[in-house]
Amino acid sequence: MPEILQSPTGQIVVGFSGLLTLTVIGVYVVLKFRDSIGEDDSSADQLTKFQEMRHEGQIDEDEYRTIRTNLGGKLSKLSSAEPEESDRFDLQG
User: Mind listing the pLDDT tens digit for each residue in 52-64?
Assistant: First the structure.
C-alpha cells in the first residue's frame, strides 16, 4: 500500500477521493441547513394552527400566549403586522 501512495497516480487518486468525500459531506450539511431554514417559512402556518387550536378550545388563551412567546420574534413580527385580524380572531374565540 505505501508503494501506491508514493506514486503520483496514487497520490492523485487519494487526493480526489478525499476531495469527493469532503464535497459529499458539505452538500449534506448545506441541505440540512436549508431544511431547517425552510421551516422558518412556515411560521405563519404554525401561528394559524395555534390560533385554530385556541378557537376550537384545544388550548386556552394563556397556553396560546406562551406558545407564541416561545416561538420567537418572527411570530411576534407577523402578528404585530396584522393586529386587526388577530383582534378579530380573539373576539370570536
Answer: 988 998 888 888 8
The pTM of this model reads 0.38
Are 71 and 31 found together in one domain?
Answer: no
Do residues 49 and 34 both lie within one domain? Answer: no
- DSSP annotation string for 23-84: HHHHHHHHHHHHHHHHHHTTHHHHHHHHHHHHHHTSS-HHHHHHHHHHH-HHHHHHHHHSHH
For residues 54 and 25, membership in a common domain is answered with no
Quote the cell numbers at residue 75: 411570530
Q: Is the domain of 78 the same as that of 57?
A: yes
